[in-house]
Amino acid sequence: MGFADLIEPSPIVESASEATEEDDDFGATETPPPKIQQLIHLLKLQPKGDKSLVFSQFTSYLRKVCVSLCTIITTH
User: Which of these, 68, 76, 3, lies nearest to 32 by C-alpha position?
Assistant: First the structure.
């Protein structure tokens, strides 16, 4: 995996100062934030059977990653 495997993030729609904690949550039917999109893209590049460890000091971020991954698993 190299730099060429990275994807271009989606454009930011609103400024960070206008975002609230409620706006930061997203449901299973909404598009995940660009960081999570990139994480999912990189995880898909891993060979089948390989394991990955995702960690963050923010549990709310891990919850969002979980929602996104569970949505992908259930739709495929």
Answer: 68
Q: How many residues does the chain have?
A: 76
Residue in the block written with tokens 């904690």 = 21
Whether the Cβ atoms of residue 69 and residue 36 lie closer than 8 Å to each other: no
To which residue do tokens 């709310």 refer?
Answer: 60
Cα 75 from Cα 67, distance rounded (Å): 12
pLDDT in tens, the chain (76 residues): 777 777 776 665 554 444 444 445 666 567 888 999 999 999 999 999 999 999 899 999 999 999 999 988 887 6
